[in-house]
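#structure-requests
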Amino acid sequence: MKFRERLVLAASLTSLVGLGVGFTSVYAQVNSEHEREVDRVLGVKSREEADEIARAQVGAQLPDDPDLEAEDIGHLHKYAVLYHPGGAVRARSALIGEHAPALEGLSGRAAQPFDLRIGESHVRAVLLPVPGRPGEQLLYGVSRDPLDADAALLARVMTLTFSGVVIWIVAMTWWITNRMTREHAAIAAVARRVAAGDLTARVGRSAPHEDIARLGRDVDAMIEQLSALVKAQRNFVSYAAHELRSPLTAAYGELSNALRKDRPADDYREAIVCALEATRHMKVLAEDLLVLARTTDPSASGVAKPVSLSSTARVAIGQLARTLEARSVRIELEGDASVPTANERDLQRLMLNLLDNAAKHSPDGGTVRVRVTEESAPAAIELVVEDEGPGVASGDAERIFEPFFRGERASEEGSGLGLSIVRAIARAHGGEVLVDARSAERAGARFVVRFAAC
């Protein structure tokens, strides 16, 4: 059963149960009021009849009462039987006929109104003693036909009314539910289109209610992000294939060329060295791809603990010792703070990639400055890495963190994934990395990484 149908069913059942209880209560109340009125008339007239019998001689026929009526009910027919002390019928009214009930069957009902059948008639009656005549008892009753007719009419009217209200409630609930859920249906249709692969689908139009409009905007934002992720994934696969193709082609070409004919040992050695260099490049690329995939995988988490950024920087400087020595590049380290992480190696990789990037772009004899500061409002840790290289072109500032992107001032060394890995690690730690806008106006690049404080 669809949500809309369940909603209509739930709303209709709730309304119908309430109406059913209300109608039943009204029906019972009206019938109870009518019955009390009949009992009141029955009590008054039965005592009057008993007093009259006590004062006068009674024949075999008890007189009818043409003025016997009850308010809101109308004329009532009289049923009366006078019993001897032994239970024999002494006198009866005309409507009793030959159907006078036996006194033995009425025992235990004295002075309290009760219902009984006299022939084909349904009668409301009371049994009471006749004053001054020991042993004699009077059965006095009135026909329930007007009361039963009113109850049947009320039941028919309420049944018809209830049926009409049921149809009205179901129709209105269905109409209102359709009106209330058509925006949901439109959003669901967009979701189905996206699930089928149509990433151009959007909710778009504004809804009349703010909560639905906000849901639509959230769904559109989610589709935008999903579309960007799919595009990034396609580009990543394309770029990875492109980057792998060059070293593979080089290695394959060198080895194939070496096997075409006999060559001197030096030629074979040169071919092997070229193939080895291509293999080394593929190895670096594969390792960076694995690091990037692991860093963006949310399942690769654990228990976080604080890690010192200055200690991480010193480890990275030790790993870059040969590169720094070859270029005569000096690294200045200032400040310290701890960042919570479940994988210390990720922070080491972030620091290593930033320093390696800075060292490769710095001129011989240049200086790379690393500064760690802790801010209080809002609580954050800032890592700044500055070099004295050519800087980042203003048009490349937004794209240098994309996988395999190489700007006009980029070095040809590396896999092209270093800064992508830096951004992925920073975001995995609730932070972000950016290139300071000032770097486009001055010599050198200035990278800023912001982490949430411990």
